[in-house]
Amino acid sequence: MIVYVDVTKKEVELQLQRIVNSDVFSASPKLRKFLQYIVEETLQGNGSRLKQYSIATNAFGLNENFDPDTNPAVRLDAGRLRIALESYYKAEGVEDTIRISVPKGRYIPIFERVASKPQLASSKNVESLGRTGIFEPNRLLIMKLKGSSINGGVPNFSEGMTEQLIVEFSRYPDITVSTSSDEAEEQQLQSSDTELDLRTRFVLCGSVTSSISAIRVTFQLHDRMSGTVIWADRFDVKVGSTDVLGAQEEIAGHIAGIIGDDFGILSYRMSLELESRIHERWSAQNTNLFHRHMARTLTEHAYQVARKNIEIGVKELPNNPMIWAARAQAVFYGNVLGYDRDEDWLNLVYYCAQRSLELDRNSHYAQVAIAQFHLYNRDFKAVIDICDRLLEKNPRSASNQLSTGFFRALAGDWDEGCQLLSKAIKRLHNPPGWAYKALFLNSYRLGRYEEALSFINQYFVPEHFTPPLLRAVVLFRLGRLDEAEKAADDVRRINPSLREHVDTYFRYLSTSDDLTDNLQDALRHLDLI
Length: 529
Known about the structure:
The chain is an alpha/beta fold. It has 25 helices and nine strands. The termini are far apart.
């Protein structure tokens, strides 16, 4: 049934065009397709066919295997569509007399004529207009796990698993987690009170099935912007022979790390879109992403972009601990790598890190910056103390294991440090290349040059000069001189002024005088220093 209230089909078609061409809907092609599909189908008399499956396959282009029981994409986007329509009629469409709405709990739109209400859009409405259709990438919605069993034990396991996921994700402060339950899902997801949840880009859902002897937990991570599943995994728990609570904790900790870690899936997904954000208006969120990218790649371009945004952030948000920690790391890397020459830069690093810790004693990046400061000053005991604190705070965090392993190794505890590094690398979806630098140095100092070469070949950052520099050194030691010269040429291309800051750089690169002498000897033979 088509619901017209004193309005013609032609008026509805014209109103649809006004809405989909508005600023609100221009920001979200997916919502445009959603609205056009359900309105056109309804006008053609096919409203009764508007179900989650038909919308997913015809409007969103998902394949025929789409399962609305496990994939909440249509329900979530229906909520966003209602919010977008509300925002349109509060701002651009405030004087429109033809209203298109989608009642909660259904997908068939209603068309009606209403009295015009001329008014200026409030600042709140304008703010809403600017945000509608734009996903907030640091938000994760955790759906309650669905379950089926033959022994009746799944509901309790599902609830416990969902609760443990929330606990584990709370260890990652950059991610804001919201939840939804089956019982009130429609009301929660479609209520205007949950507008922020509906803008969530990433949704974690899953299911629990069980038999008499085992429980299987399956998870999927959905990216609502692309409409794809970007990660999935399953875990089996043996009933009777396994500590169920311990299994829940282990699984939840593993998933939270894979997804929410500094080097996890969400962070990696955002890093792929950084170039498109460079010219956007300044924001704390983008600054955080630029900082992470800088810390991950250490290229001069990444540094310049991050430093510019960080300096703006210090002025815009002087009491933001993340900004100060990011500044500490940016100043450190900029000066040891020769990208900048800040006056009294080492004390500036320490001041910025201390300022961050004053605002947030648990700031991970501030602790890392201070560890870098102490490592540069050869205060190895202070470095080890920081490593212990980082692991104590979140022992399951792969990035914590990565940082502590890296610092422990360079502080002289090579065995423990490299074990932590190797363990963390295996857990990460896309580990940063610099983690392999410490593994390289350990193998190189022991004379295991082939092994060292295999490690540095996994340092995939083509526009940073450290990988080709270390590759040139080990190739020289292996007697592969032609390859060593080619690697040296890459160093000259990327960093032609290396000779001007070689002492500062090597104090950062190596904490052992003997190791430094060995590395520099090879580089002199290659005429790099």
